[in-house]
């Protein structure tokens, strides 16, 4: 399938932000164990330096949808819950800051088009096999991207950047527009966010041009065929976007995975889908069945979100980076200020998967 960026042109697209070589040396190490030691050391160094960049003006959390997700994926091999599914809540973060020229910048992190995301092969297949009456019980929509922005008084034209930790399930056609008519949408969508660019790792764009079978259930490649190339701002590695706002490359869950790192009034937060619960970074404190015992038995520091195991050792190492960067929660210091972009949510339908601790939201700066 041809993509607007194409394997030959991806390197010609523009970049954004100030690149930081936070973990570049570790990528060249020969063994995963050596890389783990190196990324831990380099993450500590970055953690010391990052607060000096400042803080954004505000961070606001917006709930989008709660939906079922296989327990064996979200809690890898650790859970002993009897429920085959758990629940996760997808949330969008709205981050605002002023650049060096005092221009207001707005980043939407995880602005999922929930309606079109349902057509991701895995979730479309799951929906077909789930009775409608049960689906209505386990899928709950909380709000839309545009609805949340209207509530916050932010016009679509004010949004500068869209960013996802990775592009699993994402269909961006309504957000960035298309170049030709779309049969399923019965239109040629004009960009709802006309001034926004999608920040994405070059690795992920390149990989989507020829998906591996392990990747196919989770992407919607046809949704990218007709989007304009100039809608993307590819980056290589890690960049500082603004005061207290950084993108850190965290490969493993997908080859081009990336995490959002924020310096706030409560310290450093990290957000991605590498794990689905804050306690997955400190499983020794988890009361969910199996997690603490499994982590102790196998000397595992973290519990992965493993729906795709593209490079498992790299994902583990990336989670250690996130664990090293995040400050401790002011609510319960046993847990870290890691905010899962898809956070484990307790539900009566999923016994044994209620989280010991959850953040629910991030509060920083004045209410918008």
Automatic annotation (TrEMBL):
Cofactor(s) it depends on: Zn(2+)
Keyword Nuclease: no
SUPFAM superfamilies per the UniProt record, alphabetical: Metallo-hydrolase/oxidoreductase
Keywords: Hydrolase, Metal-binding, Zinc
InterPro entries in UniProt: MBL_superfamily_lactonases, RibonucZ/Hydroxyglut_hydro
Keyword Cytoplasm: no
Region annotation Disordered: where it falls in the sequence: 349-368
Similarity field: Belongs to the metallo-beta-lactamase superfamily.
Descriptive protein name: 4-pyridoxolactonase
